[in-house]
User: What shape does this take?
Amino acid sequence: MLSFLPTPIGNLEDITYRTVKLLQGSEVVLCEDTRVAKRLITLLNDKLSTNINIQQKKFISLHSHNEQSIIDRLDDKFFEQDIVYMSDAGTPAISDPGAMLVKYCQKHHIKYQVLPGASASIVAVAASGFDIERFLFVGFLPHKHTARKAQLQTILEDGFVSILYESPKRVLDLLEIIHSLNPTVEVFVAKELSKLHEQFFVGKAGEVLEILKKRSIKGEWVVVIDGATKSTGEPITIDDISSLSLPPKQKAKLLAKLTSRPIKDIYDDLNEL
Assistant: This one.
């Protein structure tokens, strides 16, 4: 049996009782980083007295760079053991590895379960105070400025409340782009959710940007963009999208939004270039 376990995004006390029980009984622990997993279990044992025996378990690293190669070496007998998969923090397969392992189980009719638990995206959207009938989980944006701007333009035009993850290196740049595209849009920005130095900031993107310029931005960030106001910034052109360093399929989807042409036709044209 394979169980996908949510782990705390900051506060150890957010670990669930079911997660602890499955960790106690597991024989194999698949995890992003064996050092992080062992450190988490040690902290749980020390702080919460969970009595999870590290020595009786086999730890196997399964992360974004080796997920497919590890899965290619698996066989059905491997899953006769009690196995858990845990990412470094949060819920597996949500901006973390795990989806390929789920697909493997589905393909080979292997029983698995996914436990509910901590997710920074859900915490942030609930804490935003925005009127939410529907929301879009985006995760991390591309690193290149032009590609980030193009994707943000689409997000602002779609009208969804949208949830983004961002590193401290790029959070100010993210807010600058949002402000340039739509100075009136409201954002909710959360730093270090559930941790000791958790902080919330809400207001127009430019207002929050000015506040953060005067503060330490070290830590993990979640940005929620209100979908109530559509973008009033300079529109993205066909040439802007054509110049992006994106896979043809993604580029075709963006161009289809601008031109109303079928995605397949645009995709075929791009592959002929």
